[in-house]
Fold this protein.
Amino acid sequence: MSDPNEQAEPDPSPDEKPDQQPERGDPTWVAPALTLDDKTRNVGKTQVFFGPPLAKLTEGQKNTLLISGKLNRTAERYLELLRYHGLELSEPERQCLAHICHIGFMSPLEIRELPMEVELTRFECEGLDKPALAAKLKAANFADLVAVVESLGF
């Protein structure tokens, strides 16, 4: 039962629009900064689907503690790779790559082919220099390309 002395939150006026936050996949989306509590709130057991990559990573292991340790070490290392890799991109370059990545899941082969995809795409926007972007992507290593795709939310 609610306290009759509590004041209810006023309803927003019809003129106020709720803050529209960009969603993952939108070139303007930025991963939210999480508090330590948010980062660790799901610590514990969880069901995970073991597709082919995870099955290969843990091949031959039956002990769930060893498997869990392997997954956590791999995830920690992957997050460090993302932290230290990536490319400086202009907003038009990010928009172009987001357009290309909008196919959905990006396999490792598709990530490696990003320079070619930039050359082939019909996407255009003001300030975009596709040959320069393609050259930048060709010069990048695979970890940098993965970090770019992850930063775009794909």
Q: What stands out?
A: The chain has a mean pLDDT of 83. Residues 64-84 form the longest helix (21 residues).
